[in-house]
Every structure is written in structure tokens, then in C-alpha cells.
From TrEMBL:
It comes from Occultella gossypii. Residues 10-227 form the Glucosamine/galactosamine-6-phosphate isomerase domain. Belongs to the glucosamine/galactosamine-6-phosphate isomerase family. NagB subfamily. The keyword Transmembrane does not apply. Its EC number is 3.5.99.6. The keyword Cell cycle does not apply. Catalyzes the reversible isomerization-deamination of glucosamine 6-phosphate (GlcN6P) to form fructose 6-phosphate (Fru6P) and ammonium ion. It comes from the Bacteria. The active site is at 67 (proton acceptor), 136 (for ring-opening step), 138 (proton acceptor), 143 (for ring-opening step). The record marks 146, 153, 155-156 as: Part of the allosteric site. The lineage of its organism: Bacteria, Bacillati, Actinomycetota, Actinomycetes, Micrococcales. Pathway: Amino-sugar metabolism; N-acetylneuraminate degradation; D-fructose 6-phosphate from N-acetylneuraminate: step 5/5. This is Glucosamine-6-phosphate deaminase. It is an enzyme of class 3 (hydrolase).
């Protein structure tokens, strides 16, 4: 695992955008793994800026989302599909048809999860996966206790994660969905390059476990220790327990 401590989220975003630009140079139809949450927002800002300046094109790129809430209406602004459109896809020249996510409105959830796994395989796998980390060490929505061998499936959200995310739902816990579809830890580990970003003191304990703790399903992000090409970018606050 490569660990980079940078001054702030903008500095982190510059480094990650450089890596994505180099990937697109080498492979214009690269497959990106995109994450929601506040952590990747500076990266999406940087990609949008570089695209507006004519420095990068994602016209041939493809993207796969990590996770999705179950049951949020198609037009709900917090549906991750819509969040990714607003924060990332709608600000660059990626073809919307090439941005895929698990279908949280599917009638047959297991079939939708299997189809999503197959779609990633059919695309040749993810080249670069952007990741955030939850305060409890979850990645995507793989909460503590998730199998390290898991694939895309339905999961129950923990109360902690629902509380963390209530800020996006008028601070009303009742409005936060109780279930999600998420790529599994093994799905995420199949990506060729994992890039995890974390800032702020609230992430310090999770970062400590991820980098220095024993690999354990109780701290799902520790699985990154087994990845041959994982880059972790943190600010001083998130690194403060290392
Ligand atoms: C959610 C997302 C995760 C994200 C986490 C942290 O649970 N499913 O992918 O990493 O939030 O979010 P934030 O970056 O806002 O702290």
C-alpha cells in the first residue's frame, strides 16, 4: 500500500486527477470506478476543471458506481445515480449510457446484482477505482462484518452510517433508506488500481486500522492491504493516528 499525506483535499485531488489523466492518455476508453460521499468531490471538481480547459476527455471512458440506495425514487436527488450525474458525469464529456450503477429499483434484486457483476467483467474490469472510507472503516457500503470475499449484493445499512448520511436527507433519519446495493469487497479488489481518499479527524481511527491494523472483516478497508496497487491519500488530520 502506498500512503501519501498531502496538505488538503485540493492537493489530494490534483494527485488523483494526474493519475486519471495519465490513465486516459494511455487508455482513452478506461474504466473508472466512481464513489459518492463528500471525499471524492474535490476530485470531480478537478476533473471538471481540466475538462473545461480542454486538458482531458472522457468521451470514450466508462464508469461504474460502487453502490446505490434501495428504493429511492428515480428522480430523488440523493439517489446515487443522480448524485454521480450532478457531481461528476454531467460536468465532463462521458457518455451517460456508459455510466452504470447497481439498480436499486430492480424487482429482482439478486438478478440485478449478478447482472452488475457481469457488466463490470464485460467492460474488462475497472482500471482505477476511487474510494472513500466510512468512520467505521466501511468501503462502498460494506459495513463491518462484511465478507472479505463478497460480491455485489443487498446490505442493511448500520444506524451509524444512516446517521452519518442523514445530513443529505434534511437531518431526518427516517428518510434515510435502510438498505443498499453495494459492490462487494472482492468486487472492489478486482479493480487494477485502488485510490482511497480520506480527510479530517473523523476518519483518523478508520485510517489507522486500514493502514496499521490486522486485516479483518470488522474493519473492511483493511482488505486494501492485500491489493497489489492501492494508493491511500490522506490529509494530516486523517493521518493523525498513524
Ligand atoms: C457512504 C458511501 C461510501 C463513502 C462514505 C464516506 O457510506 N457509500 O462510499 O466512502 O459514505 O462518505 P464521506 O466521504 O462523505 O465521508
Amino acid at each position: 500500500m502506498e500512503l501519501i499525506i498531502a496538505p488538503d483535499s485540493r492537493a489530494i485531488a490534483t494527485i488523483v486527477a494526474d493519475a486519471i489523466a495519465a490513465l486516459l492518455d494511455r487508455k482513452p476508453d478506461a474504466v473508472l470506478g466512481v464513489a459518492t460521499g463528500s471525499s471524492p468531490l474535490a476530485i470531480y471538481d478537478e476533473l471538471a476543471t481540466r475538462h473545461a480547459a480542454g486538458e482531458i476527455s472522457l468521451a470514450r471512458a466508462r464508469a461504474f458506481m460502487l453502490d446505490e440506495y434501495v428504493g429511492l425514487a428515480a428522480e430523488h436527488p440523493q439517489r446515487y445515480r443522480n448524485v454521480i450525474e450532478t457531481e461528476f458525469a454531467g460536468r465532463v464529456d462521458i457518455d451517460p449510457a456508459n455510466v452504470k450503477g447497481p439498480d436499486g429499483l430492480a424487482a429482482d434484486i439478486p438478478a440485478a446484482c449478478a447482472a452488475y457483476e457481469q457488466a463490470i467483467v464485460d467492460a474488462g474490469g475497472v482500471d482505477l477505482q476511487i474510494l472513500g472510507i466510512g468512520t467505521d472503516g466501511h468501503i462502498a457500503f460494506n459495513e463491518p462484518g462484511s465478507s472479505l470475499a463478497s460480491r455485489t449484493r443487498i446490505k442493511t445499512l448500520t444506524v451509524q452510517t444512516r446517521q452519518d448520511n442523514a445530513r443529505f436527507f434534511d437531518d431526518d433519519l427516517e428518510q434515510v433508506p435502510t438498505h443498499c446495493l453495494t459492490q462487494g469487497l472482492a468486487t472492489i479488489m478486482s479493480a487494477r488500481h485502488l485510490v482511497l481518499v480520506a480527510t479530517g479527524l473523523a476518519k483518523a481511527e478508520a485510517v489507522h486500522h486500514m493502514v496499521e491494523g490486522s486485516v479483518s472483516a470488522m474493519w473492511p478497508a483493511t482488505i486494501l492491504q492485500h491489493h497489489p496497487h492501492a494508493t491511500v491519500l490522506v490529509d494530516e488530520a486523517a493521518a493523525s493516528r498513524l
